[in-house]
Structures are given as structure tokens and as C-alpha cells.
Automatic annotation (TrEMBL):
It comes from Streptomyces lavendulae subsp. lavendulae. Pfam families: OCD_Mu_crystall (PF02423). InterPro entries: NAD(P)-bd_dom_sf, ODC_Mu_crystall, ODC_N. PANTHER family: KETIMINE REDUCTASE MU-CRYSTALLIN (PTHR13812:SF19). This is Ornithine cyclodeaminase. One of its GO terms (cellular component) is cytoplasm. It comes from the Bacteria. Signal peptide: none annotated.
Length: 325
């Protein structure tokens, strides 16, 4: 077979830049990642048009495929959710993120997918916090969970606000105490607590693998902000119907939330709320289409399911930050 000269290999391809967890953490803070997300939304990105998350059952759990594209770049995350991994000493979330040039679709960088997710998710929450919680010192932060997302969310909150106290609520006492110690190292008065501590909280952050509500939503004070990020499954939730019914609800995308957010879909199936219960989206807040601060006289709830456009925006910011080194 004759190979056309134009189709012949020009030589060995340059090595693809790789970003491991350490490099990702050193290049971009949660606040910087939140800035990248805000810039993407202000530039006109519409999360409602983002491709759906692909899902495939695998022997150890679930395989997720999350593609996205912008004018300059495209990318895809292949992530595994393996519930049995922590018992093996392995991360529950695994995978890789491939960033491509938007015009040629040639790969330009490869990222640790779990580390990218560990940065992206707190950044989304930090962006919501900027627009839904009062600026300046805060009172009590109640943090549900003790895994990587709990640490990431603690860092993200501390970058945006100054809580007087952090209360950790987690199933594993040893891991809860470790997170308390980390919070104290960051200069925050911290302790372990119970679900009842939400009664005096200004900010409640849920980043767990729970499939049932973590606390009684009737205890949450008007004006408090609840952020729930732990689930993207329609039959799993971290917050209860009582909270959702009385809260002003904000999401990344109405379409994604009404497809994947069990925190909203379960109350809707119960007849407690309708699809119109959502007060607004992250894009509405960032672009000023709705006022910051949320509705008065009720709790604010931000429910995140995680979306591919967020991974792309943060990966591009990391790639550009590496180029500036």
C-alpha cells in the first residue's frame, strides 16, 4: 500500500503535558477556579445547552462520560465512581480529563480527573456562596462529610468568608476529628457535632455519599444558605422535603437539575413542589439577571449536580496558568 506523503507521520508527537493532583493544587485555588467559572458564564456560556452526562454501569460502580466544548477548547472527563474503593485504600472518584484544541481537536493536556473534580466542585459552591450569602464574617459553618470534597469545601468557604465556628458532622469519628484538626490549622474554631447543629448555622455544606436526608430542614434558619453537592442521582438526596419546600432554590441548570437532582425530584414526586419551584440559576446570579442575596425570609438552597462545562472552564484555566509559569 502506498502512503501519501501528506498522510505520512511527520515524526514523534510531543509529549502531552500531564497535570497530577499536586500540580493542579499548586496552579489554581478554589477562588481562582470560581473566577474561571464566572468568566465563562459572563462570556455567554449557557449551561442549559450543556450535553447530558453519560453513564454506564460497571462491575465496581459507575462510569461517567462528560464532554463539553467552547470556542477555543473542547474536553471530556472519563470518571469512575467506585463505592468500594475507600475500603481498598483507593479514592472513590477516579478518572482522567483530556483537554483538546477546539479547532483541530488535537489533545493538548491530560489532567487527573479526581483532582480536577476535587477543585471544580468546591469552586462551583464558592461561586454560589459569593452571590447567595452576605459578604464579610459569618457565624457557624456546618459541614457534612469528611472526604476530599469536605476538605475542598472548607478551603473554598474560608477563601470567601470568615466563619466564627466550623462544625463537622461525619459518620467516621476519626475522619471527623482529622477534618476538625485541619480546620483549626487554618485558624478556625472547630469541633465535631450533630445534625441538630444546623439550627444555629449561617452556612450548611453537604458533600457526602448519603442517599437520604442528613438533617431536619425545619431547623434551618431563614437567611441561612445550604449547599448540597453530594449526589447527581434522581433517587438520592442530602436535603429533605421540608427544606426544599420552604427554601429559595438555585441550581447550575434547570434542565440538569430536573433530570438528576434527587433533592428536588423526590419532593416533586411527593407533590410538595412543582418544576417552577427553582428560583434561579448560577448564570442568573453571575450575570445579574436576578439580584444577589437570594429571597428574604427563607433559607437559600444551592443544589449542584456537577456539569461538564465546569470541568472544561477549570481545565482551561489550569492549562493557561501553567503556560504563565
Amino acid at each position: 500500500m502506498t502512503v501519501h506523503p501528506a498522510a505520512a507521520p511527520a515524526g514523534p508527537a510531543p509529549a502531552l503535558p500531564q497535570f497530577d493532583a499536586g500540580r493542579i493544587a499548586g496552579l489554581l485555588t478554589p477562588a481562582g477556579a470560581a473566577d474561571a467559572l464566572a468568566d465563562a458564564l459572563r462570556a455567554g456560556l449557557d449551561p442549559e445547552g450543556c450535553p447530558q452526562r453519560g453513564s454506564l454501569s460497571a462491575p465496581g460502580g459507575e462510569l461517567l462520560l462528560m464532554p463539553a466544548a467552547s470556542a477555543e477548547y473542547a474536553g471530556v472527563k472519563i470518571a469512575g465512581v467506585a463505592p468500594g474503593n475507600p475500603e481498598r485504600g483507593l479514592p472513590r472518584i477516579t478518572g482522567s480529563y483530556l483537554l483538546l484544541d477546539g479547532v483541530t481537536l488535537c489533545p493538548v493536556a491530560l489532567f487527573d480527573g479526581a483532582a480536577l473534580t476535587a477543585l471544580r466542585t468546591p469552586a462551583v459552591s464558592a461561586l454560589a456562596l459569593r452571590h447567595l450569602a452576605p459578604a464579610g464574617p459569618a457565624g457557624r459553618l456546618v459541614l457534612f462529610g469528611s472526604g476530599p470534597q469536605a476538605y475542598g469545601h472548607l478551603d473554598a468557604v474560608l477563601a470567601e468568608r470568615e466563619p466564627a465556628e466550623a462544625v463537622v458532622v461525619a459518620r467516621d469519628p476519626g475522619r471527623a476529628q482529622a477534618l476538625v484538626a485541619y480546620a483549626r490549622e487554618r485558624g478556625v474554631a472547630a469541633r465535631t457535632g450533630t445534625a441538630g447543629d444546623v439550627a444555629g448555622a449561617d452556612l450548611v455544606v453537604c458533600c457526602t455519599t448519603a442517599r437520604e436526608p442528613l438533617f431536619d430542614g425545619r431547623l434551618v434558619a431563614p437567611g441561612a444558605l445550604v449547599v448540597a453537592v453530594g449526589s447527581h442521582e434522581p433517587d438520592a438526596r442530602e436535603t429533605d422535603t421540608a427544606l426544599v419546600r420552604r427554601a429559595a432554590v438555585y441550581v447550575e441548570s434547570r434542565a440538569a437539575a430536573l433530570r438528576e437532582a434527587g433533592d428536588l425530584l423526590v419532593p416533586e414526586a411527593e407533590g410538595a413542589i412543582g418544576p417552577g419551584h427553582i428560583s434561579g440559576t448560577l448564570a442568573d446570579l453571575v450575570t445579574g439577571r436576578i439580584p444577589a442575596g437570594g429571597r428574604t425570609g427563607c433559607p437559600q438552597l444551592f443544589k449542584s449536580v456537577g456539569m461538564a462545562w465546569e470541568d472544561l472552564a477549570v481545565a482551561v484555566a489550569l492549562f493557561r496558568a501553567a503556560g504563565d509559569e
